[in-house]
Amino acid sequence: MFNLSSSPDAGASHIAALDLGSNSFHMIVARWDNGQLTLLDRLREPVRLGFGLQADGSLSKDARERALACLERFGECLRAYPSRSVRIVGTKTLRSISDAGEFLAAAEARLGHPVEIISGDEEARLIYLGVAHCIAPDKGNRIVMDIGGGSTEVILGAGMTPSLKESLNMGCVAITKQFFNDGKVTEKSITKALIACLQELQPVKDEFIERGWQEVLGASGSIKAVAKVCETNGWSDGAISATSLDKIIARYLDAGKLDIDMPGLSDDRKPVFLGGAIVLRALFEALQLKSMIAADWALREGLLFDQKGRLENHDIRQASVDALALRFHVNMEKATAVEKTALNLLTQVAQKWQLTARDASKLLGWAARLYQVGLDIAHNDYHKHSAYIVQHVDLAGCSRAEQTQLSALVLAHRKRFPAKNFPLDNTDLVRLAILLRLAAIFHRGRIKDGLPNISLIADGKKIKLSLPHHWLQNHPLTQADLDTEQRHLGDIGYELMVSGN
């Protein structure tokens, strides 16, 4: 999430990434040496969060306690790090639980850093990024698959860029919980599990097959565990095939239970290994795969590279915003003019309002570029359409919380302040909305002679806007808009004073 409040941010040579998955929580710490990622530490705990997801969407007490105890331990390593050096994301189970806000507050208190819940599409992008940095892409397409605890991501791409991404509702924990929760394995339960996975793949498989690929890669715990079992049992040199998957499934069927010893399989992977193998077998069948190689890197490493890009101002979110503006035919001349004015106003009040220059300017600038996207739907109440689009479209690089902040700014840029649909307790976001509203007023129509010098002074909830007296006299519509804005801001407790100089 955007950190809008300015605070001292100590420099750090290390960077950390946490993946709060449905099966395990992972943390890695690394540093950058001459442009290369050097991994310093890895921590993994099999929290099994997905097993605690109940029918009503709540999280069981046991799962919550396991998760928070793990995060308390992780937090001991992270509290000394500046927030800009840490990325923490939650995936399928955290996307699904109904009390996510309550859990996140408790998690952040233990970690000392914000947790982002990312969409399946964003999860897939980060997985592809991690794999692409692990195994250098060759010419042509590659397909990458990652079986997590609650979901499976399938990504097609070329080079460093994914072109087709799908997040499917099947994972090693989810399949185990649904079909093998009693610990028993029968031919009937295996068949049902396979059919369920094939049904999930049915709507998406044809597009992948039509595009084709030259390389098949798998990532994360389930696939790496399958590769190790294949190698340990002498079925392959580490590559995975449909035949080796059938051998794994057959061993469980012969034993009739989940709790079996298998050479190459770790104890903590045992409870969910068959579920992951069945998902992988369905992928092989639906996508007509012959062989797969396991990659060592995935989501967590992708997070590190993505964060490095942000720190070096190569932010994928900027490209996502610009692509969305282009898709909805935004008038970029007007949008960039509003952005320039809004950032000018931010510069004048940032210190007094204690707003951080980096994140506040990014969020404000992107809102200025996107507030018009709803005009492609209708002019009437277009700000509501704009907010809906920004909230629900897939913006690569953005977490749910970031899109919610961006959507709130877009919604609040005109008319009465949307008090019922805006987090008024978020003072920093309110103040950014005020700056966007003022900038939009100055660019509501085309001003042929350009804008004058605009002075803005802020002192808490008192704002003084100063313009040349003669300019105000020559622009009565802008003066009228500012008079209206005084009333709108007064409704939320802010006093806007407009004076000529």
UniProtKB/TrEMBL annotation:
<dbReference type="InterPro" id="IPR030673">
    <property type="entry name" value="PyroPPase_GppA_Ppx"/>
</dbReference>
<dbReference type="InterPro" id="IPR003695">
    <property type="entry name" value="Ppx_GppA_N"/>
</dbReference>
<dbReference type="InterPro" id="IPR048950">
    <property type="entry name" value="Ppx_GppA_C"/>
</dbReference>
<protein>
    <submittedName>
        <fullName>Exopolyphosphatase</fullName>
    </submittedName>
</protein>
<feature type="domain" description="Ppx/GppA phosphatase C-terminal">
    <location>
        <begin position="316"/>
        <end position="486"/>
    </location>
</feature>
<dbReference type="Pfam" id="PF02541">
    <property type="entry name" value="Ppx-GppA"/>
</dbReference>
<dbReference type="InterPro" id="IPR050273">
    <property type="entry name" value="GppA/Ppx_hydrolase"/>
</dbReference>
<dbReference type="GO" id="GO:0006798">
    <property type="term" value="P:polyphosphate catabolic process"/>
</dbReference>
<keyword id="KW-0378">Hydrolase</keyword>
<dbReference type="Pfam" id="PF21447">
    <property type="entry name" value="Ppx-GppA_III"/>
</dbReference>
<dbReference type="InterPro" id="IPR043129">
    <property type="entry name" value="ATPase_NBD"/>
</dbReference>
<feature type="domain" description="Ppx/GppA phosphatase N-terminal">
    <location>
        <begin position="28"/>
        <end position="307"/>
    </location>
</feature>
<dbReference type="GO" id="GO:0004309">
    <property type="term" value="F:exopolyphosphatase activity"/>
</dbReference>
